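Appendix B. Raw example, untouched.
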Amino acid sequence: MLCQFRFQNFASYRDETVFDMQAAGIGELRDSLIPPPEGKFSPLLPVSAIFGPNGGGKSNAINALACLISRVLGRTGEDGDPFRISQHKCSPFLLDESSKSAPTQFELFFRTSAAQYQYQLSLLNGLVAEESLSCIRTPCRLRRPTFLFARSGGRLELGGALRRAAPQSLDPGAPFLSLLAAEHRFFPARDAMSWFERCRGIDVGAQNRNRQLSQTLGDPEAKARLLALLAEMELPVSDCAVREEDGGIVTTHTVNGRSYRLGLEDESEGTAKLLGLLPCVLSSLDRGGPLLADELDAKLHPQLLRRVIQLYTDPKRNPKGAQLIFTCHDVSIMKNDLLRRDEIWFAAQNSENASELWSLYDIQDKSGKRVKNAASYDRQYLAGRFGADPYFNRILEKI
Protein backbone atom coordinates (compact mmCIF):
# COMPACT_ATOMS: atom_id res chain seq x y z
CA MET A 1 0.00 0.00 0.00
CA LEU A 2 1.13 3.53 -0.73
CA CYS A 3 1.58 5.66 2.39
CA GLN A 4 3.09 8.89 1.07
CA PHE A 5 4.78 10.16 -2.07
CA ARG A 6 7.02 13.23 -2.27
CA PHE A 7 8.54 14.60 -5.44
CA GLN A 8 10.30 17.73 -6.69
CA ASN A 9 11.37 19.17 -10.03
CA PHE A 10 9.23 16.91 -12.21
CA ALA A 11 7.47 18.23 -15.33
CA SER A 12 5.18 21.10 -14.23
CA TYR A 13 6.08 20.64 -10.52
CA ARG A 14 9.06 22.72 -9.41
CA ASP A 15 8.85 22.70 -5.61
CA GLU A 16 8.57 19.77 -3.22
CA THR A 17 5.08 18.28 -3.46
CA VAL A 18 3.50 15.85 -1.00
CA PHE A 19 0.78 13.37 -1.91
CA ASP A 20 -0.44 11.60 1.23
CA MET A 21 -2.48 8.39 1.42
CA GLN A 22 -2.32 8.29 5.24
CA ALA A 23 -5.79 8.93 6.64
CA ALA A 24 -6.35 12.13 8.58
CA GLY A 25 -7.96 11.87 12.01
CA ILE A 26 -11.48 12.58 10.82
CA GLY A 27 -14.62 10.57 11.37
CA GLU A 28 -16.22 10.26 7.96
CA LEU A 29 -16.28 6.92 6.10
CA ARG A 30 -13.88 5.29 8.54
CA ASP A 31 -15.11 1.81 7.62
CA SER A 32 -13.60 2.25 4.15
CA LEU A 33 -10.04 2.77 5.45
CA ILE A 34 -7.28 0.19 5.05
CA PRO A 35 -6.41 -0.84 8.61
CA PRO A 36 -2.79 -0.61 9.75
CA PRO A 37 -0.68 -3.59 10.85
CA GLU A 38 0.26 -4.04 14.48
CA GLY A 39 2.35 -1.20 15.80
CA LYS A 40 2.39 2.56 15.47
CA PHE A 41 1.15 2.99 11.91
CA SER A 42 -1.67 5.03 10.38
CA PRO A 43 -4.67 3.61 8.49
CA LEU A 44 -4.47 4.28 4.77
CA LEU A 45 -6.89 5.67 2.20
CA PRO A 46 -8.26 3.27 -0.43
CA VAL A 47 -8.96 6.06 -2.94
CA SER A 48 -7.65 9.48 -3.95
CA ALA A 49 -9.13 11.61 -6.73
CA ILE A 50 -7.30 14.62 -8.21
CA PHE A 51 -9.37 17.46 -9.70
CA GLY A 52 -8.38 20.73 -11.33
CA PRO A 53 -8.28 22.73 -14.57
CA ASN A 54 -6.71 21.49 -17.77
CA GLY A 55 -2.99 22.15 -17.67
CA GLY A 56 -3.01 22.41 -13.87
CA GLY A 57 -0.83 19.37 -13.22
CA LYS A 58 -3.29 16.53 -12.49
CA SER A 59 -1.73 14.13 -14.98
CA ASN A 60 1.81 15.10 -14.01
CA ALA A 61 1.11 14.17 -10.38
CA ILE A 62 0.09 10.68 -11.54
CA ASN A 63 2.97 10.56 -14.02
CA ALA A 64 5.53 11.40 -11.33
CA LEU A 65 4.57 8.29 -9.36
CA ALA A 66 4.39 6.21 -12.53
CA CYS A 67 7.84 7.47 -13.54
CA LEU A 68 9.39 6.34 -10.26
CA ILE A 69 7.67 2.94 -10.34
CA SER A 70 8.61 2.25 -13.97
CA ARG A 71 12.20 3.35 -13.36
CA VAL A 72 12.59 0.89 -10.49
CA LEU A 73 10.96 -1.92 -12.43
CA GLY A 74 13.04 -1.24 -15.54
CA ARG A 75 12.23 -3.30 -18.61
CA THR A 76 12.54 -6.75 -17.04
CA GLY A 77 9.39 -8.83 -17.50
CA GLU A 78 7.72 -6.05 -19.53
CA ASP A 79 6.44 -8.40 -22.24
CA GLY A 80 5.00 -10.94 -19.80
CA ASP A 81 2.79 -8.65 -17.72
CA PRO A 82 0.32 -6.49 -19.67
CA PHE A 83 -0.85 -4.79 -16.47
CA ARG A 84 2.47 -3.35 -15.34
CA ILE A 85 3.06 0.39 -15.50
CA SER A 86 4.67 1.42 -18.77
CA GLN A 87 7.88 3.43 -19.00
CA HIS A 88 7.47 7.16 -18.25
CA LYS A 89 9.84 9.94 -19.19
CA CYS A 90 11.49 11.90 -16.39
CA SER A 91 11.94 15.58 -17.23
CA PRO A 92 12.61 18.51 -14.86
CA PHE A 93 10.68 21.76 -14.53
CA LEU A 94 11.77 23.80 -17.55
CA LEU A 95 10.36 27.24 -16.78
CA ASP A 96 13.28 28.52 -14.70
CA GLU A 97 17.01 28.25 -15.28
CA SER A 98 18.02 26.64 -11.99
CA SER A 99 15.52 23.78 -12.24
CA LYS A 100 16.68 22.76 -15.71
CA SER A 101 20.03 21.58 -14.37
CA ALA A 102 18.79 20.32 -10.99
CA PRO A 103 17.93 16.69 -10.20
CA THR A 104 14.41 15.29 -10.06
CA GLN A 105 13.81 13.91 -6.58
CA PHE A 106 11.41 11.20 -5.43
CA GLU A 107 10.67 9.91 -1.94
CA LEU A 108 8.25 7.06 -1.36
CA PHE A 109 6.80 5.53 1.80
CA PHE A 110 5.03 2.24 1.15
CA ARG A 111 3.85 -0.75 3.13
CA THR A 112 3.89 -4.51 2.59
CA SER A 113 2.64 -7.18 4.98
CA ALA A 114 6.17 -7.44 6.41
CA ALA A 115 7.39 -3.84 6.69
CA GLN A 116 6.98 -0.17 5.90
CA TYR A 117 9.69 1.13 3.58
CA GLN A 118 11.18 4.52 2.82
CA TYR A 119 12.77 4.74 -0.61
CA GLN A 120 14.50 7.75 -2.15
CA LEU A 121 15.68 8.20 -5.72
CA SER A 122 17.24 11.28 -7.33
CA LEU A 123 17.77 11.44 -11.10
CA LEU A 124 19.87 13.90 -13.07
CA ASN A 125 20.08 13.76 -16.88
CA GLY A 126 18.72 10.22 -16.78
CA LEU A 127 21.34 8.96 -14.33
CA VAL A 128 21.00 8.03 -10.65
CA ALA A 129 22.43 10.81 -8.47
CA GLU A 130 21.27 9.47 -5.09
CA GLU A 131 19.30 6.49 -3.81
CA SER A 132 18.49 4.98 -0.42
CA LEU A 133 16.27 2.39 1.25
CA SER A 134 15.29 1.81 4.89
CA CYS A 135 12.45 -0.08 6.56
CA ILE A 136 10.47 -0.62 9.74
CA ARG A 137 9.51 -4.25 10.23
CA THR A 138 5.99 -5.07 11.44
CA PRO A 139 4.79 -5.51 14.08
CA CYS A 140 6.85 -2.85 15.80
CA ARG A 141 6.90 -1.11 19.16
CA LEU A 142 9.08 1.82 18.12
CA ARG A 143 9.10 3.40 14.69
CA ARG A 144 12.86 3.10 14.39
CA PRO A 145 13.93 2.47 10.77
CA THR A 146 16.55 -0.08 9.79
CA PHE A 147 19.12 1.24 7.31
CA LEU A 148 19.47 -0.98 4.23
CA PHE A 149 21.54 0.99 1.72
CA ALA A 150 22.45 4.47 0.52
CA ARG A 151 24.01 5.49 -2.77
CA SER A 152 25.52 8.79 -3.86
CA GLY A 153 26.85 8.79 -7.39
CA GLY A 154 29.29 5.88 -7.61
CA ARG A 155 29.59 5.43 -3.84
CA LEU A 156 27.49 2.78 -2.11
CA GLU A 157 26.98 2.08 1.61
CA LEU A 158 25.29 -1.17 2.65
CA GLY A 159 23.78 -2.03 6.00
CA GLY A 160 23.50 -5.32 7.85
CA ALA A 161 23.20 -8.50 5.80
CA LEU A 162 23.19 -6.51 2.56
CA ARG A 163 26.93 -6.03 2.89
CA ARG A 164 27.35 -9.40 1.21
CA ALA A 165 25.67 -7.96 -1.88
CA ALA A 166 28.31 -5.35 -2.67
CA PRO A 167 28.56 -5.15 -6.49
CA GLN A 168 31.82 -4.82 -8.39
CA SER A 169 30.39 -1.77 -10.16
CA LEU A 170 27.21 0.29 -10.28
CA ASP A 171 25.13 0.93 -13.39
CA PRO A 172 24.83 4.75 -13.38
CA GLY A 173 21.47 4.59 -15.15
CA ALA A 174 19.75 1.88 -13.08
CA PRO A 175 18.47 1.96 -9.48
CA PHE A 176 20.48 -0.30 -7.16
CA LEU A 177 17.22 -1.65 -5.71
CA SER A 178 16.43 -3.21 -9.09
CA LEU A 179 19.81 -4.96 -9.23
CA LEU A 180 19.61 -6.04 -5.61
CA ALA A 181 16.17 -7.63 -6.02
CA ALA A 182 17.02 -9.31 -9.33
CA GLU A 183 20.40 -10.83 -8.48
CA HIS A 184 20.16 -11.55 -4.75
CA ARG A 185 17.73 -13.26 -2.40
CA PHE A 186 17.84 -10.74 0.43
CA PHE A 187 14.32 -10.57 1.82
CA PRO A 188 14.02 -6.78 2.37
CA ALA A 189 15.04 -6.00 -1.22
CA ARG A 190 12.81 -8.69 -2.69
CA ASP A 191 9.91 -7.66 -0.45
CA ALA A 192 10.30 -3.98 -1.39
CA MET A 193 10.44 -4.84 -5.09
CA SER A 194 7.27 -6.92 -4.75
CA TRP A 195 5.40 -3.70 -3.93
CA PHE A 196 6.50 -2.09 -7.20
CA GLU A 197 5.52 -5.23 -9.09
CA ARG A 198 1.99 -5.05 -7.66
CA CYS A 199 1.44 -1.52 -8.96
CA ARG A 200 -0.91 -1.22 -11.91
CA GLY A 201 -1.58 1.44 -14.52
CA ILE A 202 -4.38 1.86 -17.03
CA ASP A 203 -3.10 2.04 -20.60
CA VAL A 204 -5.81 3.33 -22.95
CA GLY A 205 -3.98 2.04 -26.03
CA ALA A 206 -6.05 -0.52 -27.97
CA GLN A 207 -3.17 -3.00 -28.30
CA ASN A 208 -2.43 -3.22 -24.59
CA ARG A 209 -6.14 -3.17 -23.73
CA ASN A 210 -6.61 -6.27 -25.88
CA ARG A 211 -3.65 -7.98 -24.18
CA GLN A 212 -5.12 -7.25 -20.75
CA LEU A 213 -8.59 -8.42 -21.77
CA SER A 214 -7.21 -11.55 -23.44
CA GLN A 215 -5.28 -12.52 -20.32
CA THR A 216 -8.36 -12.01 -18.14
CA LEU A 217 -10.61 -13.96 -20.50
CA GLY A 218 -8.08 -16.81 -20.61
CA ASP A 219 -8.56 -17.37 -16.87
CA PRO A 220 -12.02 -18.93 -16.26
CA GLU A 221 -12.27 -17.53 -12.72
CA ALA A 222 -11.17 -14.02 -13.75
CA LYS A 223 -13.58 -14.12 -16.72
CA ALA A 224 -16.48 -15.11 -14.46
CA ARG A 225 -15.69 -12.19 -12.14
CA LEU A 226 -15.48 -9.81 -15.10
CA LEU A 227 -18.87 -10.92 -16.45
CA ALA A 228 -20.37 -10.66 -12.96
CA LEU A 229 -19.15 -7.07 -12.68
CA LEU A 230 -20.59 -6.23 -16.09
CA ALA A 231 -23.95 -7.65 -15.03
CA GLU A 232 -23.79 -5.79 -11.72
CA MET A 233 -23.14 -2.56 -13.60
CA GLU A 234 -26.08 -3.37 -15.88
CA LEU A 235 -23.99 -3.43 -19.05
CA PRO A 236 -25.86 -5.51 -21.68
CA VAL A 237 -22.97 -7.90 -22.39
CA SER A 238 -23.72 -11.55 -21.62
CA ASP A 239 -20.36 -12.94 -22.74
CA CYS A 240 -16.93 -11.84 -23.89
CA ALA A 241 -14.30 -13.94 -25.65
CA VAL A 242 -11.13 -13.87 -27.74
CA ARG A 243 -11.74 -14.32 -31.46
CA GLU A 244 -9.79 -17.37 -32.62
CA GLU A 245 -8.99 -16.20 -36.13
CA ASP A 246 -7.20 -12.95 -35.26
CA GLY A 247 -7.08 -12.65 -31.45
CA GLY A 248 -9.60 -9.79 -31.39
CA ILE A 249 -12.20 -9.38 -28.67
CA VAL A 250 -15.86 -10.18 -29.31
CA THR A 251 -18.84 -9.52 -27.06
CA THR A 252 -22.18 -11.31 -26.93
CA HIS A 253 -25.51 -9.51 -26.52
CA THR A 254 -28.69 -11.49 -25.81
CA VAL A 255 -31.83 -9.88 -27.24
CA ASN A 256 -35.25 -11.59 -27.13
CA GLY A 257 -33.65 -14.93 -26.49
CA ARG A 258 -31.19 -14.67 -29.38
CA SER A 259 -27.45 -14.07 -29.11
CA TYR A 260 -25.58 -11.55 -31.27
CA ARG A 261 -21.80 -11.19 -31.43
CA LEU A 262 -20.03 -7.85 -31.92
CA GLY A 263 -16.38 -7.01 -32.30
CA LEU A 264 -15.06 -4.73 -29.59
CA GLU A 265 -14.48 -2.13 -32.30
CA ASP A 266 -18.27 -2.12 -32.88
CA GLU A 267 -19.11 -1.40 -29.25
CA SER A 268 -19.69 2.08 -27.90
CA GLU A 269 -16.62 3.92 -26.66
CA GLY A 270 -18.02 3.76 -23.12
CA THR A 271 -18.41 -0.02 -23.24
CA ALA A 272 -14.92 -0.41 -24.72
CA LYS A 273 -13.52 1.85 -21.97
CA LEU A 274 -15.17 -0.21 -19.23
CA LEU A 275 -14.01 -3.49 -20.76
CA GLY A 276 -10.48 -2.09 -20.86
CA LEU A 277 -10.71 -0.77 -17.30
CA LEU A 278 -12.15 -3.70 -15.38
CA PRO A 279 -9.29 -6.18 -16.02
CA CYS A 280 -6.90 -3.62 -14.49
CA VAL A 281 -9.26 -3.16 -11.54
CA LEU A 282 -9.51 -6.92 -10.97
CA SER A 283 -5.72 -7.28 -11.19
CA SER A 284 -5.11 -4.54 -8.62
CA LEU A 285 -7.77 -5.93 -6.25
CA ASP A 286 -6.24 -9.40 -6.53
CA ARG A 287 -2.69 -8.20 -5.87
CA GLY A 288 -3.50 -5.48 -3.34
CA GLY A 289 -1.49 -2.79 -5.13
CA PRO A 290 -2.16 0.78 -6.27
CA LEU A 291 -3.93 1.38 -9.60
CA LEU A 292 -3.02 4.65 -11.35
CA ALA A 293 -5.55 6.04 -13.81
CA ASP A 294 -5.48 9.32 -15.71
CA GLU A 295 -8.94 10.73 -16.56
CA LEU A 296 -10.73 7.72 -15.14
CA ASP A 297 -14.08 9.40 -15.77
CA ALA A 298 -13.58 9.81 -19.54
CA LYS A 299 -16.42 8.09 -21.44
CA LEU A 300 -17.86 6.60 -18.24
CA HIS A 301 -21.34 7.35 -16.92
CA PRO A 302 -21.15 8.93 -13.43
CA GLN A 303 -22.92 5.95 -11.86
CA LEU A 304 -20.40 3.53 -13.41
CA LEU A 305 -17.56 5.69 -12.12
CA ARG A 306 -19.10 5.63 -8.66
CA ARG A 307 -19.38 1.83 -8.76
CA VAL A 308 -15.74 1.45 -9.75
CA ILE A 309 -14.71 3.63 -6.79
CA GLN A 310 -16.91 1.58 -4.45
CA LEU A 311 -15.00 -1.57 -5.37
CA TYR A 312 -12.07 -0.04 -3.47
CA THR A 313 -13.95 1.61 -0.60
CA ASP A 314 -15.80 -1.60 0.30
CA PRO A 315 -13.48 -3.70 2.54
CA LYS A 316 -15.36 -6.89 1.61
CA ARG A 317 -14.54 -6.37 -2.06
CA ASN A 318 -11.08 -5.02 -1.35
CA PRO A 319 -9.70 -7.32 1.37
CA LYS A 320 -6.05 -6.94 0.26
CA GLY A 321 -5.99 -3.16 0.56
CA ALA A 322 -5.70 -2.13 -3.09
CA GLN A 323 -5.76 1.63 -3.77
CA LEU A 324 -7.25 3.62 -6.64
CA ILE A 325 -5.46 6.89 -7.49
CA PHE A 326 -6.93 8.81 -10.40
CA THR A 327 -7.48 12.18 -12.05
CA CYS A 328 -10.99 13.34 -12.83
CA HIS A 329 -13.18 16.20 -14.09
CA ASP A 330 -16.55 14.70 -13.09
CA VAL A 331 -17.60 16.63 -9.99
CA SER A 332 -20.66 14.42 -9.48
CA ILE A 333 -18.45 12.08 -7.42
CA MET A 334 -17.22 14.93 -5.21
CA LYS A 335 -19.72 13.91 -2.54
CA ASN A 336 -19.32 13.26 1.17
CA ASP A 337 -21.15 9.93 0.91
CA LEU A 338 -18.46 8.59 -1.47
CA LEU A 339 -15.18 10.40 -0.74
CA ARG A 340 -13.58 11.71 2.43
CA ARG A 341 -12.12 15.22 2.52
CA ASP A 342 -8.58 13.80 2.56
CA GLU A 343 -9.38 11.71 -0.55
CA ILE A 344 -10.20 14.78 -2.67
CA TRP A 345 -7.16 16.55 -4.14
CA PHE A 346 -6.66 19.59 -6.34
CA ALA A 347 -3.90 20.49 -8.78
CA ALA A 348 -3.41 23.93 -10.32
CA GLN A 349 -0.63 26.24 -11.44
CA ASN A 350 0.50 29.18 -9.33
CA SER A 351 1.52 32.65 -10.57
CA GLU A 352 4.94 31.28 -11.64
CA ASN A 353 3.38 28.55 -13.80
CA ALA A 354 4.48 25.83 -11.39
CA SER A 355 1.92 23.20 -10.37
CA GLU A 356 0.84 22.76 -6.78
CA LEU A 357 -1.11 19.91 -5.17
CA TRP A 358 -3.28 20.02 -2.04
CA SER A 359 -6.18 18.11 -0.50
CA LEU A 360 -9.62 19.38 0.45
CA TYR A 361 -8.75 18.58 4.06
CA ASP A 362 -5.73 20.93 3.86
CA ILE A 363 -7.89 23.97 3.05
CA GLN A 364 -8.51 26.33 5.97
CA ASP A 365 -10.06 29.76 6.21
CA LYS A 366 -8.39 32.73 7.91
CA SER A 367 -9.58 31.56 11.31
CA GLY A 368 -8.10 28.08 10.78
CA LYS A 369 -11.41 26.31 10.20
CA ARG A 370 -11.48 23.50 7.66
CA VAL A 371 -14.13 22.82 5.04
CA LYS A 372 -16.99 21.03 6.82
CA ASN A 373 -17.74 17.46 5.86
CA ALA A 374 -21.40 18.41 5.45
CA ALA A 375 -20.55 21.00 2.76
CA SER A 376 -21.50 20.65 -0.91
CA TYR A 377 -18.01 20.03 -2.18
CA ASP A 378 -18.97 20.01 -5.85
CA ARG A 379 -20.82 23.34 -5.70
CA GLN A 380 -18.08 25.06 -3.75
CA TYR A 381 -15.46 23.71 -6.17
CA LEU A 382 -17.38 25.03 -9.19
CA ALA A 383 -17.70 28.37 -7.41
CA GLY A 384 -13.90 28.54 -7.23
CA ARG A 385 -13.66 28.30 -3.44
CA PHE A 386 -11.00 25.56 -3.34
CA GLY A 387 -8.31 27.32 -5.37
CA ALA A 388 -8.39 25.04 -8.44
CA ASP A 389 -10.93 27.10 -10.36
CA PRO A 390 -12.35 25.07 -13.26
CA TYR A 391 -14.09 27.96 -15.00
CA PHE A 392 -12.53 28.63 -18.38
CA ASN A 393 -12.80 32.43 -18.30
CA ARG A 394 -11.00 32.55 -14.94
CA ILE A 395 -8.33 30.21 -16.24
CA LEU A 396 -7.75 32.62 -19.11
CA GLU A 397 -7.38 35.48 -16.64
CA LYS A 398 -4.47 33.63 -15.01
CA ILE A 399 -2.58 33.04 -18.26
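End of appendix B.
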